[in-house]
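thought: fold this chain, then report.
action: predict
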Amino acid sequence: MRGCRCNNFKYFFLVALFFLYELVENRFDEKIARLTIIFTFLFPTSFFISAIYTESLFLLGTVLAFWAADQDKWWVAGIGGAIAVLTRNLGITLLLPLAWIAVEKHGHKAWKNLFPLLLIPMAFSLWAIYLWHSTGDPLRFIHSESGWGRFLSPPWVGILTAIKKILTPIPSVKFPSGTYISAWSIQFSHVYSTIDVAAAILGIILPLVGKKYGQPWPWVIFALIGVLIPMSAPTLYSMTPLASMTRYILVLFPLMITLAQIAQKHPSLEIALFVSLPLIQGLFFILFTTWNWIA
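observation:
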């Protein structure tokens, strides 16, 4: 029953796309806004929106926050940030890009606009208080990560570990003792790691390309933080050290905007993306629905 109710979160995705379209159209033009929506649908892991994950609600919170900040609706921005932080702990990092936007718009008078953004840490604190009351540990959301085999490390450690695993022959019988089995089919472990490494690299490169095409620094910073934080908590003893990276970057909307900008500037690449992305999504969907891959 809970799964069915959570599955209804896909409707939040549609609302998120509305605000995303408005945000991009206001900043750039109608064509880039339209292409951004298309690439969000075509992205290889977009089918997770209809699964029991938090992607749709997190995307709604973040896009709403940036749209509202762009429109100088700071209480709405604070509410959007609060939604994001209650959906995923990464939402607390919205404080930095939203504050950046406020300072860019209003200079030394920005403190009036920063006050509504306190809704974000307030929501974060309420979540910690709830965990303290229910589990006795206000930082349960951090400490529980060890159960997934995640450990804090520099961002490059996860990528290097994943590359090492890709180059290491797959054990013929079983993985060494202490290895966290994060995929259902051992024979696909190199494929999983390759996919996650590619997602991490794209998550770093695309925001920087987006800056070249005119995206504001707050958007770029938001996207880079959204990639670097998961990279800093890899599952080092897993078959896939950068597990779920493809799903994490799905909700980083500046990446989709960059794809739209690239497609607009290079029509041949637009056709290539329109053809390749649905095919890759189909492959991922088959792996997911046959219990061969969980991102």
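thought: worth noting. Residues 41 and 153 are 33 Å apart (CA to CA).
final: tokens above.
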